[in-house]
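Q: I have two molecules that I believe assemble together. Could you output structure tokens for the complex as a whole instead of separate predictions?
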Amino acid sequence: MSQADTDETLMQAYGAGDADAFRRLYLRHADPVYRYCLRASGSTANAAEFAQDVWTRVIESRQRYTQTAGFKTWLYRIAHNRMVDHWRTQATRGSSETLADEQADPSASPERRAAAEDCVARLQVELAGLPFEQCELIVLREEGELTLEQMAGLQGVGRETVKSRLRYALAKLKEALHDCLE
Amino acid sequence: MTASNERDPDRELDDYLAGRHALSRLYAQARVERPTGHDAAILAKAVAATRAGTPKRGGRRWQPVLAVAATMVLGVAVGWNLLQAPGTDVSADSDSAMGSAPLSAGSAAPSASGDIAALGSQKATEAAEAILAEDARQQRLAQKQESARAAQPRAQAFAAPRSVPSPNPQMAAPQARAAPPPRGAANPSPPLISDDPQIQRLIDQVRELPDGTIRLDGKSLSGSALAEVWTQRWARSGTRCSLAADFVEFCALPDYEDAQIEQDGELQPLRPVLHRWIRNMEHPLR
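A: Yes, here they are, computed for all two components at once.
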């Protein structure tokens, strides 16, 4: 199997019993999936566990994967469902200890508040402050490079709704991080 | 809000989707790497899943196929036994089928027993019983075919003399023609113990007839000599002459179809008289 093998062929090879194909898939997507879980959950404490759940689900579902669905769309749908389950149990996003809470808490230590002044840290805080649907779209675009259609299918909404959500998210982030985005 | 301001979000979105937005650059700086603590566990789980083979759902998919294959193997074994068992070929000559019929049941039984030991299951037992039942059915079918042949015109059925040795020179003329294959050619077996006892009584009755009572082609036949011929035929007939009526048709009358018997001062055909004797066996005429 060459380096140029697509995600889809690798996943099918793994479904046929090629464990090395899974290893290569995992190395390609482990970091983006982890970051998706991190941004979507807003919690460093849970992100690794969520990511592990996602990959476990991929392993268990290897026989059901068909190439009709792009691998990334399929992978992030699994991750999306995992996050939806998480937020259902949490009732509302941010009710648990989240990255936003950790980094935006005004009573946090001076060191953490100082770190929050860093653009990267502020971005994380602002992402965590977005509604889940908007934050997820930013993360899906940045991490998975999903198209508007793929994101619409994943969230179960129309393409225009995705565009609208993205506009709102961009506007909020630009407003909060205008000094970092210039 | 002006029209240009309304277009800004669209332009900004287009830039973002095209990868030209400053947010993407900032996001790239915010990327962190995953903690690798779970990598080994996930990869090990993936390898274990492939080593575990086909998942349960796939295994269940193979079960009907396996069941069909097992059924086919069992069916072929039973069919092979049916084909190999002697006396089961209904297309074979009925005489040879009749001759081998008594042996077929006996020879099929050990074969079926061997199969039972080989298969070692309840289904194998049922299959062996089916083989034996099929043998019995084939025997009955062969008997019916022989009966139909015996009912054909005498000139066609008994055109050639029969090669049964006659103990009496007086009986030498009628020769057996189409004798059924004997159970043992060199040493004929005695009549089956399950044979109709009326047969022996019928033979005895003929043996006691006075000389000259039975006539064939104008010649007198000795009752004792005729009884001896019939006894030999009976012994070599297998199951074909187990019943008294069958004995008359298949063992006694061949070569003696035209025989007559003197009763009440008149010569009567032998056939109806023999059958009447059988019907009145409890009250024999003589």
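A: One point stands out. The two ends of chain A are 44 Å apart (CA to CA).
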